[in-house]
Amino acid sequence: MPEGLFFPVIETERLTLKPLAINDAESLLKIFSDPEVMRYWNTPPWKTLQDSLDFINASNDSMQCQESLVLGVYLQSTGELIGKCMLFSYDAESKRAEIGFGLGRAAWGKGYINEAGEALIQYGFSVLGLRRVEAEIDPDNQSSAKTLEKLGFSREGLLRQRWEVNGIISDSAMYGRLKSDHMN
Ligand SMILES: CC(C)(COP(=O)(O)OP(=O)(O)OC[C@H]1O[C@@H](n2cnc3c(N)ncnc32)[C@H](O)[C@@H]1OP(=O)(O)O)[C@@H](O)C(=O)NCCC(=O)NCCS
């Protein structure tokens, strides 16, 4: 697949989704060092600028290898970085990938992930040729569950005691959306 397909710039009504740049590191750290944002994540909150730089570099490497698509979410009106969304665990043969997203607290509740998520899913279906997009969330994460349902995902199962982070054990709820679920 042409390399450029893993470095897209996607415009939606209010947002631009594009690869993260090194000079996003500080804004990204502000968002992902917030324990409220990271409450249901399977890693602890970030601590240092290096965590942020490591994430940006690892994201770029994984896009170079065509393993994932990690995009910053920017407000078109101001250019501000408000979060990130991604398609990862891409399996070209099985035509599936997993979706993930996270926004800074000030950007919650404005339907931004509905907009960004739908654009990313459509990109996955139409450009990357995906047949299935899946998501794994903490079943206690009501906001994420609502967001996935609004995005047309079905809850497909529960994996018990799947994670242990800082001694806390949690289950995973699995969601899926097929290309054939939503033919517009
Ligand atoms: C989950 C998340 C991505 C949702 O994105 P969003 O753009 O805020 O989504 P929406 O505006 O459609 O809101 C979805 C739900 O979030 C909840 N929510 C919205 N604003 C909220 C706020 N300020 N405080 C608490 N919950 C809020 C509501 O339950 C809302 O559903 P409703 O509109 O039907 O009431 C975002 O809240 C987030 O980044 N959370 C932290 C990171 C995270 O948990 N990511 C998912 C890990 S898999």
TrEMBL record:
Record's signal peptide: none
SUPFAM superfamilies in UniProt: Acyl-CoA N-acyltransferases (Nat)
Pfam families in alphabetical order: Acetyltransf_3 (PF13302)
Record-annotated N-acetyltransferase domain positions: 15-181
PANTHER family xrefs: GNAT FAMILY, PUTATIVE (AFU_ORTHOLOGUE AFUA_3G00765)-RELATED-RELATED, RIBOSOMAL-PROTEIN-ALANINE ACETYLTRANSFERASE
Name of this chain's protein: GNAT family N-acetyltransferase
